[in-house]
Design goal:
Blueprint lengths: L2 E5 L3 H13 L3 E5 L2 H10 L4 E5 L7 H10 L6 E5 L4 H10 L3 E4 L4 H15 L8 E4 L2 E4 L4 E4 L2 E3 L3 H12 L7 H8 L10 H13 L8 E4 L3 E4 L1
Parallel strand pairs: 1-2, 1-3, 3-4, 4-5
Antiparallel strand pairs: 6-7, 7-8, 8-9, 10-11
Length: 224
Protein backbone atom coordinates (compact mmCIF):
# COMPACT_ATOMS: atom_id res chain seq x y z
CA UNK A 1 0.00 0.00 0.00
CA UNK A 2 1.51 3.39 -1.00
CA UNK A 3 2.67 5.61 1.85
CA UNK A 4 2.08 9.34 1.79
CA UNK A 5 3.55 11.92 4.14
CA UNK A 6 1.68 15.21 4.53
CA UNK A 7 3.50 18.12 6.16
CA UNK A 8 0.82 20.61 7.10
CA UNK A 9 0.19 22.81 10.12
CA UNK A 10 -3.38 23.75 9.21
CA UNK A 11 -5.84 21.53 11.09
CA UNK A 12 -8.72 22.32 8.71
CA UNK A 13 -6.73 21.21 5.67
CA UNK A 14 -5.52 18.13 7.52
CA UNK A 15 -9.12 17.11 8.27
CA UNK A 16 -9.94 17.14 4.55
CA UNK A 17 -6.71 15.98 2.91
CA UNK A 18 -5.92 12.99 5.13
CA UNK A 19 -9.35 11.27 4.91
CA UNK A 20 -9.47 11.81 1.13
CA UNK A 21 -6.05 10.25 0.57
CA UNK A 22 -6.82 7.43 3.00
CA UNK A 23 -10.08 6.65 1.18
CA UNK A 24 -8.08 6.21 -2.03
CA UNK A 25 -6.10 3.40 -0.42
CA UNK A 26 -3.03 5.26 0.81
CA UNK A 27 -1.40 4.99 4.23
CA UNK A 28 -1.10 8.60 5.37
CA UNK A 29 1.33 9.94 7.98
CA UNK A 30 1.13 13.53 9.21
CA UNK A 31 3.86 15.94 10.30
CA UNK A 32 2.72 19.25 11.79
CA UNK A 33 5.97 21.20 11.45
CA UNK A 34 8.80 21.45 8.99
CA UNK A 35 11.43 19.98 11.29
CA UNK A 36 9.19 17.06 12.19
CA UNK A 37 8.58 16.55 8.48
CA UNK A 38 12.30 16.43 7.65
CA UNK A 39 12.87 13.86 10.40
CA UNK A 40 10.02 11.67 9.12
CA UNK A 41 11.21 11.90 5.51
CA UNK A 42 14.69 10.80 6.55
CA UNK A 43 13.36 7.92 8.65
CA UNK A 44 10.56 6.65 6.40
CA UNK A 45 10.24 5.23 2.90
CA UNK A 46 7.43 7.31 1.38
CA UNK A 47 5.99 7.20 -2.12
CA UNK A 48 4.92 10.87 -2.13
CA UNK A 49 5.42 13.87 0.14
CA UNK A 50 2.72 16.56 0.16
CA UNK A 51 3.77 19.69 2.00
CA UNK A 52 2.65 23.22 2.75
CA UNK A 53 4.94 25.91 1.35
CA UNK A 54 4.58 28.28 4.31
CA UNK A 55 5.21 26.35 7.52
CA UNK A 56 5.54 28.12 10.88
CA UNK A 57 9.12 27.03 11.53
CA UNK A 58 10.63 27.05 8.03
CA UNK A 59 9.99 27.42 4.32
CA UNK A 60 8.64 24.18 2.88
CA UNK A 61 11.18 24.35 0.07
CA UNK A 62 13.91 23.84 2.66
CA UNK A 63 12.51 20.34 3.09
CA UNK A 64 12.67 19.75 -0.66
CA UNK A 65 16.25 20.99 -1.02
CA UNK A 66 17.30 18.93 2.01
CA UNK A 67 15.77 15.81 0.47
CA UNK A 68 17.39 16.35 -2.91
CA UNK A 69 20.71 17.22 -1.26
CA UNK A 70 20.94 13.80 0.38
CA UNK A 71 19.71 11.91 -2.69
CA UNK A 72 16.07 11.32 -1.70
CA UNK A 73 14.09 11.50 -4.95
CA UNK A 74 10.62 10.87 -3.49
CA UNK A 75 8.10 12.92 -5.52
CA UNK A 76 6.98 16.12 -3.76
CA UNK A 77 3.79 18.09 -4.31
CA UNK A 78 3.73 21.57 -2.79
CA UNK A 79 0.59 23.35 -1.59
CA UNK A 80 0.73 27.14 -1.48
CA UNK A 81 -1.55 30.14 -1.01
CA UNK A 82 0.61 32.23 -3.33
CA UNK A 83 -0.28 32.11 -7.01
CA UNK A 84 2.73 33.99 -8.42
CA UNK A 85 4.56 32.43 -11.36
CA UNK A 86 7.96 33.22 -9.83
CA UNK A 87 7.13 31.27 -6.68
CA UNK A 88 6.06 28.24 -8.72
CA UNK A 89 9.28 28.41 -10.73
CA UNK A 90 11.25 28.68 -7.48
CA UNK A 91 9.52 25.54 -6.22
CA UNK A 92 10.28 23.59 -9.39
CA UNK A 93 13.90 24.66 -9.33
CA UNK A 94 14.15 23.53 -5.73
CA UNK A 95 13.18 20.03 -6.88
CA UNK A 96 9.43 19.71 -6.28
CA UNK A 97 7.45 17.71 -8.84
CA UNK A 98 4.05 19.41 -8.72
CA UNK A 99 2.60 22.64 -7.36
CA UNK A 100 -0.96 23.31 -6.20
CA UNK A 101 -2.21 26.80 -5.38
CA UNK A 102 -5.07 27.43 -2.98
CA UNK A 103 -7.97 27.17 -3.21
CA UNK A 104 -7.80 23.75 -4.84
CA UNK A 105 -10.09 20.78 -5.14
CA UNK A 106 -9.25 17.98 -2.70
CA UNK A 107 -10.21 15.50 -5.41
CA UNK A 108 -7.73 17.14 -7.79
CA UNK A 109 -5.00 16.92 -5.18
CA UNK A 110 -5.78 13.25 -4.66
CA UNK A 111 -5.61 12.64 -8.42
CA UNK A 112 -2.26 14.38 -8.64
CA UNK A 113 -0.87 12.31 -5.76
CA UNK A 114 -2.12 9.14 -7.48
CA UNK A 115 -0.33 10.20 -10.67
CA UNK A 116 2.94 10.72 -8.77
CA UNK A 117 2.59 7.29 -7.15
CA UNK A 118 1.98 5.66 -10.56
CA UNK A 119 5.13 7.20 -11.99
CA UNK A 120 7.19 6.09 -9.00
CA UNK A 121 5.93 2.51 -9.15
CA UNK A 122 5.72 2.04 -12.93
CA UNK A 123 7.12 -1.27 -14.24
CA UNK A 124 10.77 -1.27 -15.16
CA UNK A 125 11.62 -1.32 -18.85
CA UNK A 126 14.18 -3.65 -20.40
CA UNK A 127 15.65 -0.66 -22.22
CA UNK A 128 18.11 0.95 -19.82
CA UNK A 129 19.91 3.40 -22.13
CA UNK A 130 18.19 5.84 -24.49
CA UNK A 131 20.10 7.51 -27.33
CA UNK A 132 18.95 10.35 -29.55
CA UNK A 133 21.60 12.20 -31.55
CA UNK A 134 24.36 13.30 -29.14
CA UNK A 135 22.17 12.57 -26.11
CA UNK A 136 22.62 9.39 -24.07
CA UNK A 137 20.41 8.83 -21.02
CA UNK A 138 21.27 5.99 -18.67
CA UNK A 139 18.00 5.14 -16.88
CA UNK A 140 19.69 2.99 -14.24
CA UNK A 141 22.32 5.51 -13.22
CA UNK A 142 19.95 8.43 -13.95
CA UNK A 143 22.78 10.10 -15.85
CA UNK A 144 22.73 12.15 -19.04
CA UNK A 145 25.69 12.64 -21.31
CA UNK A 146 25.87 14.91 -24.33
CA UNK A 147 28.87 15.34 -26.61
CA UNK A 148 31.19 13.58 -24.12
CA UNK A 149 30.02 15.70 -21.20
CA UNK A 150 28.02 14.41 -18.23
CA UNK A 151 25.16 16.78 -17.44
CA UNK A 152 23.40 17.08 -14.08
CA UNK A 153 19.61 17.20 -14.25
CA UNK A 154 16.99 17.36 -11.55
CA UNK A 155 14.64 14.35 -11.20
CA UNK A 156 11.71 16.00 -12.99
CA UNK A 157 13.95 17.26 -15.80
CA UNK A 158 15.16 13.69 -16.30
CA UNK A 159 11.58 12.43 -16.56
CA UNK A 160 10.68 15.11 -19.11
CA UNK A 161 13.74 14.27 -21.19
CA UNK A 162 13.09 10.54 -20.91
CA UNK A 163 9.54 11.06 -22.19
CA UNK A 164 10.77 13.18 -25.10
CA UNK A 165 13.54 10.71 -25.97
CA UNK A 166 11.06 7.84 -26.01
CA UNK A 167 9.04 9.87 -28.52
CA UNK A 168 11.94 11.29 -30.52
CA UNK A 169 10.97 12.55 -33.96
CA UNK A 170 7.37 13.05 -32.89
CA UNK A 171 5.80 16.45 -32.32
CA UNK A 172 4.71 16.48 -28.68
CA UNK A 173 2.03 18.86 -27.51
CA UNK A 174 2.19 20.41 -24.05
CA UNK A 175 -0.79 18.24 -23.09
CA UNK A 176 1.03 15.06 -24.13
CA UNK A 177 4.16 15.99 -22.19
CA UNK A 178 2.23 17.07 -19.10
CA UNK A 179 0.05 13.96 -18.96
CA UNK A 180 3.02 11.69 -19.72
CA UNK A 181 5.25 13.17 -17.02
CA UNK A 182 3.00 14.71 -14.35
CA UNK A 183 -0.17 12.69 -14.97
CA UNK A 184 -3.67 14.06 -14.50
CA UNK A 185 -5.44 16.56 -16.72
CA UNK A 186 -3.48 19.34 -18.42
CA UNK A 187 -4.28 22.86 -17.25
CA UNK A 188 -3.71 25.35 -20.13
CA UNK A 189 -2.87 27.98 -17.52
CA UNK A 190 0.18 26.12 -16.21
CA UNK A 191 3.67 26.73 -17.58
CA UNK A 192 5.27 23.62 -16.06
CA UNK A 193 6.06 22.13 -19.46
CA UNK A 194 7.57 25.32 -20.89
CA UNK A 195 9.70 25.89 -17.77
CA UNK A 196 11.18 22.39 -17.84
CA UNK A 197 11.74 22.31 -21.62
CA UNK A 198 13.46 25.69 -21.38
CA UNK A 199 15.73 24.41 -18.63
CA UNK A 200 16.54 21.28 -20.65
CA UNK A 201 17.55 23.44 -23.60
CA UNK A 202 19.91 25.42 -21.39
CA UNK A 203 21.53 22.15 -20.32
CA UNK A 204 21.87 20.28 -23.62
CA UNK A 205 22.23 22.93 -26.31
CA UNK A 206 25.65 24.03 -27.56
CA UNK A 207 26.22 27.67 -28.58
CA UNK A 208 26.40 28.05 -32.34
CA UNK A 209 24.60 24.77 -33.05
CA UNK A 210 20.89 24.15 -33.74
CA UNK A 211 18.77 23.43 -30.67
CA UNK A 212 18.22 19.75 -29.98
CA UNK A 213 14.68 20.53 -28.83
CA UNK A 214 12.76 22.54 -31.40
CA UNK A 215 9.59 24.53 -30.85
CA UNK A 216 6.96 23.70 -33.43
CA UNK A 217 4.89 26.86 -33.49
CA UNK A 218 1.26 26.26 -32.60
CA UNK A 219 1.88 22.56 -31.92
CA UNK A 220 4.49 21.84 -29.27
CA UNK A 221 8.04 20.49 -29.15
CA UNK A 222 10.15 18.11 -31.22
CA UNK A 223 13.29 16.29 -30.09
CA UNK A 224 15.53 14.89 -32.80
Amino acid sequence: MPRILTIEDDAVTERTVVPTLASTGFTVDVARSGREGIAMVMAGDYDVVALERRLPDLDGLTIVTTMRGVGIETPVIVMSSTTGVEERIQGLRAGCDDYLTRPFSIDEMSARVEALVRRRTRPATTETVLRVGPLELDLVKRRLSCRDKVLRLRPTELRVLEFMMRHAGQVLTRTMIFEGVWGGRFDPGTNLVDVHVGRLRNRVDTPGQPSLIRTIRGSGYLLG
